Amino acid sequence: MFQLVEFLSRNRNFILFVLLETLSFWLIVQSNSYWSATYFNTSNYYVAKALTLSNTVREYATLREVNADLAAENVRLNTLVTQLQQQRAVDAPPNYQPDSLFSARFTYVVAKVINNETNRANNYITIDKGTLDGVQPGMGVISATGVVGKVRFCSEHFSVITSILHAQFMVSTRLVRSDEIGTAKWPGKSPDFIDLIDVSRYKTVEKGDSAVTSNLNAVFPPGIMVGTVENLTVRPDQTFYDISLRLSTDFRNMSYVYVVKNQLRPQLEELQKRLETERR
């Protein structure tokens, strides 16, 4: 208390000056309509600026929660789209009616990317979901924009994904306009492009055509974007096109991915094993 009194006593002249200046300013604003309007317009402007800055900071602070909510919503939408695609397949005959369990066989688990490689010959991605979340090796992984890769290893809380940017990763891919099926395989160069091989040169392929996962996938739902045709060439001695796809997924800026669960995959693998046994 003594220090406060001492401070006021030592600075009394300055405090009196500030009070008189404030009183003078208030009297001018109250008695003059021009300065009154100017004061309120100016104060409203700076108050609005302060509120805008405050809202911006608050929105930035909640971006993590917003992204998580959007990722969860994408899971629901992906499940719904996949079911509709299976029920209304473009190439299905009119009287074809898929089994309800078959059309709903794909479900999704949202995961956050915690490590991502793009500059190696064989690239891997690490996510924050593992066996405790139902993730198993061999499951497909997609993003909101397209194919990402396939689960390679799992622990209880983490999983390592073989990225599509891997020399040994291949995915059956269909060109939407030409309805031709080939295999997408990364040539080990730019993380923005992937090759599409085994597409016959005698089929019409156009630049800009969309490439999506085909129906010949047990790992990925059909219709998931892989990329778009960027360049295509064919040499006289070749049977197939040389096609370069621009990947639909930006691997340098991935935050969330979706692990694809095929509920019927164990049955399919069991049948494949029995078939291989019969062939031996």
From TrEMBL:
Question: Is-annotated flag, keyword Repeat?
Answer: no
Is Plastid there in the keyword field? Answer: no
What NCBIfam families does the record tag this protein with? Answer: PRK13922.9-3 (NF010532)
Membrane-traversing stretches: none
Q: Which UniProt keywords apply?
A: Cell shape
Q: What is this protein called?
A: Cell shape-determining protein MreC
Q: Which residues form the Rod shape-determining protein MreC beta-barrel core domain?
A: 113-261
Q: One of this protein's GO BP terms?
A: regulation of cell shape
Q: Kindly list the GO CC terms recorded for this protein.
A: plasma membrane
User: Which family is it part of?
Assistant: Belongs to the MreC family.
Q: InterPro entries in the record, alphabetically? A: Cell/Rod_1, Cell/Rod_MreC_2, MreC, MreC_beta-barrel_core
